[in-house]
């Protein structure tokens, strides 16, 4: 049995685990990251695309922001489109900040490179992971190339996502779960087609929601509302483009540029929070603790905010020997989590066809009319979308 001794054992090499590892490394705190999947898998998994300023700042702070600064697309607004007309929400004017469009798998590549440059251990393809001794002597058990390994640590950071083992290793009676499952999902595509807009377009349409995003000046990222269990076999490329064209159509003849579709998938939608985000010496961060519908582009950014707080709490504990910040981590993180849950639910409910009655459809249009004509309402959207400042919580 190979036993590795470290200060913080981190489960998961997603944005939460890798960013936490780098933040702690900058504070001189040793970590080991254990990842179930291969490096190739985590570096190519297509997920989020929008970084808040706070997240972008953290990547730069940990030495993983150079490529993002070169290749990321700075966006100073979005368009809300309904009844065949577009309305721009000006982030700079309303909130004084912007977002960066930069794919999550690129963030992962940059964080893995930064960790390698720091010479910090990162185990991919870890098998049979389990965690024990959460009350007093935390251990991460796993196999590395079939050989049993154990990490002896002071604390475990559960950054292993919604389907990980951290949250489910906590006794059920020690957790309160809040969950809302939506009656729809997103069919997402990557296409070799120039984005038809320089900013993101969120569309409310009677046929269903659609979103135009992008990955570069020649790669479009597009989503359309579908059933949560939609059968991709029923969606040949031609049908996807036809449906997207219908939902983005405007009175002045807007057309998407079409191209070869290189990736397609269906993502179900839920709002989920596990409280508290701690069990003795196990601390949850990111999707391991909470899930938001992707409409507000918050999942990745909320994970970053969690690990910013958690890294400060670990650093305080090692610096002072006190537990105060660690004791306050869950409550502080959850205050932001619920604000972001509310915004993500609001944007989702505002823009999606919920299968409700005609009243709900007319109410949505009235709320959209209010958002694009009230400076106060538009400011609230801009502030939430571009990200609540980390120091507000
Ligand atoms: P992650 O799930 O990213 O990472 C967890 C890591 O832990 C994974 O690498 C996993 O392999 C590993 N792991 C799991 N179990 C383990 C075990 N037992 N042992 C070791 N490792 C283990 N957010 C947005 O903002 N916009 C989007 O458009 C968007 N699209 C998404 C599409 C999909 C299909 C999914 C699933 C999520 C999407 N999200 C989106 C949310 C997503 O970006 C997450 O919020 C973000 O990845 C959260 O990061 P982590 O908390 O690190 O969790
Ligand atoms: C993306 O680019 O993948 C993206 C952008 C904004 C969202 C969700 C996803 O709200």
Total helical elements: 11
CATH topology of the domain at 2-75 and 98-178 and 270-353: FAD/NAD(P)-binding domain
Please state the structural category: alpha/beta
The value of Rg in angstroms is 21 Å
Biggest sheet descriptor = 8 strands, mixed
CATH class of the domain at 2-75 and 98-178 and 270-353: Alpha Beta
Overall helicity: 25-40%
**How would you write the strand order of the largest sheet?**
7-6-15-16-17-14-18-21
CATH homologous superfamily grouping of the domain at 2-75 and 98-178 and 270-353: FAD/NAD(P)-binding domain
Question: What is the number of beta strands?
Answer: 21
Strand content: 25-35%
What small molecules does the structure contain?
A: arabino-flavin-adenine dinucleotide, P-hydroxybenzoic acid
The CATH architecture of the domain at 2-75 and 98-178 and 270-353: 3-Layer(bba) Sandwich
C-alpha geometry: globular
Describe the structure.
36% of the residues lie in helices and 29% in strands. The chain has 393 residues and is an alpha/beta fold. The chain has a domain at 2-75 and 98-178 and 270-353: FAD/NAD(P)-binding domain (3-Layer(bba) Sandwich), CATH 3.50.50.60. An eight-stranded mixed β-sheet has the order 7-6-15-16-17-14-18-21. It has a six-stranded mixed β-sheet with strand order 9-3-2-13-20-19, covered by helices on one side. A four-stranded mixed β-sheet has the order 1-12-11-10, with no helix packed on it. It starts with a strand and ends in a 7-residue tail after the last helix. The mean pLDDT is 97.
